[in-house]
Design brief:
Layout lengths: L1 H26 L1 E9 L5 H8 L14 E9 L5 E10 L5 H4 L8 E8 L6 H18 L4 H16 L33 E6 L4 H7 L4 H18 L2 E4 L8 H13 L16 E2 L6 H8 L11 H4 L3 H4 L10 H17 L1 H15 L8 H12 L48 H17 L1
Parallel strand pairs: 1-3, 1-4, 4-5, 5-6
Antiparallel strand pairs: 2-3, 6-7
Helix pairs in contact: 7-9
């Protein structure tokens, strides 16, 4: 009998283990994160970082919708649940994963791109209106919707800074009053606004003439929206993997209640982190009090302008060589047909030739000057006629030594021709006298 009893106890043990395992599996939570944003706003790279992928290349294109999941474990590596992450850039796919059955376990991330800050206001208004309208279309029961909105309200009111939690009794759950202007639109779903591509701040400063005040104005505008919707705010750079781990940890904290001890950050322009419930109208007013070139009552689009509206780079297109030469040839031919134009051209060349040339080109310049100064009616010199070497222009820095030229004899020309030089006449007279003496 004893062995039979032992087998029975072992069977009960296995049943207990299987039962506990099934209970543990059923208690594991499944949560949904939906990341929405315009095309090329960095959603795919952000998803890869949230999946904690170490090697993230440049992801081109927009697939429309993406899905993946993250296993959430506690400090003892025990599996708490699974978090499915969807990304989309169009409202068409939103009804497929923002469903009535999963709405109570859903968190929404509105992804914005700081590479194009002039689109931030339109993206915020577009996605907030799309989400709000879709939630209405789900026709959630009034009781369930009221509970969802109460959870968001409690999440906002119960925020306590990490450094103040030690002084507060863990058993106490104090709900602070919601300030005026905060949570005026309660969607019933936790929302985080993620400003991606903060690594483009340097590019905006160089190419778009952005100053520190530009980024403060953008932050002021986004924080006003987040306060009205009771949303959190995270600035991150998926490309440089900046604050993406912080975003993932904060999402785990909101959905699974995991410990989160990160303080709010509102000083560093590329590392802004505003948890849900931390912000207030007074804190946001500190930013607007320092505005010099921006006005609070002026439209966002009139103050944050597109790159092409600020600086248009002129591109000078070079003319084709053959077209340029053809055009110049036509101009020269047109000038050659006009006598007045030809006279002006010759006159301009003559004036240009009277300018003092550089010392090294003196001989060549004098030669061309002599050609230009020759009268039109003077006879052209023969090929055999000697040409005297032109002298360089006078200069105090140049000393020119000339050697005497050998006497040249010119034959007596016909009547009325060129008269021979004096040294030639003396030579001929001497020869004539010698011939007479010989006779």
């Amino acid at each position: 009998m004893a062995p039979t009893g032992t087998l029975k106890k072992d069977g009960d043990l296995w049943e207990e283990l299987l039962s506990s395992l099934q209970t543990s599996t059923n208690t594991r939570k499944y949560k949904t994160v939906i990341v929405v944003g315009s095309k090329k706003s960095g959603k795919s790279t952000l998803l890869a970082r949230m999946l904690e992928q170490k090697d993230v290349g440049l992801i081109s294109g927009d697939p429309g919708v993406e899905f993946n999941f993250v296993d959430v474990k506690d400090d003892d590596k025990e599996l708490l649940g699974r978090m499915g992450i969807y990304t989309t850039s169009t409202e068409t796919f939103l009804p497929h994963f923002l469903t009535k059955e999963r709405i109570e376990d859903t968190l929404i991330v509105i992804n914005l791109s700081l590479a194009e800050p002039w689109t931030i206001e339109d993206d915020l208004l577009y996605w907030s209106s799309i989400i709000e309208q879709h939630l209405k279309d789900l026709e959630i029961e009034n009781g369930v919707l009221k509970q969802m909105r109460q959870r968001v309200s409690d999440l906002f009111s119960s925020y306590v800074a990490p450094d103040a939690r030690n002084d507060q009794d863990e058993s106490s759950n104090i709900l602070l009053p919601i300030p005026d202007g905060a949570l005026t639109t309660n969607l019933g779903v936790p929302v985080i606004v993620c400003v991606s591509k903060v690594d483009m701040m340097g590019h905006l400063t160089r190419e778009n003439d952005f100053s520190e005040e530009h980024f403060e104005y953008v932050q002021w505008h986004i924080r006003k929206f987040c306060l009205a919707y009771g949303a959190g705010l995270v600035y991150c750079s998926p490309r440089d993997n900046t604050n993406t781990k912080l975003l993932l940890d904060y999402v785990r904290h909101l959905l699974f209640g995991m410990e989160f001890n990160m303080e709010a950050q509102a000083i560093e322009p590329d590392g802004i982190f505003v948890p849900i419930g931390w912000d207030s109208p007074a804190k946001i007013a500190v930013i607007s009090d320092g505005f010099i070139n921006f006005k609070k009552d002026k439209a966002f689009g009139d103050q944050i302008k597109k790159l092409s509206d600020v600086r248009r780079k002129q591109v000078i297109k070079c003319e084709d060589d053959q077209l340029f030469l053809a055009r110049m040839q036509a101009i020269l031919q047109e000038k050659s047909k006009s006598p007045s134009a030809q006279h002006k051209v010759l006159e301009g060349e003559a004036k240009a030739s009277t300018r003092s040339p550089p010392p090294g080109d003196g001989v060549l310049a004098n030669f061309f000057n002599s050609l230009l100064q020759k009268k039109p009616g003077s006879p052209a010199s023969s090929v055999n006629s000697p040409i005297s070497s032109p002298s360089p222009p006078p200069s105090s820095h140049l000393t020119v030594h000339k050697k005497p030229l050998a006497p040249q004899v010119s034959a007596p020309g016909p009547k009325g021709g060129t008269r021979p030089p004096a040294i030639a006449r003396d030579f001929l007279a001497k020869k004539k006298k010698e011939k007479e003496t010989d006779r």
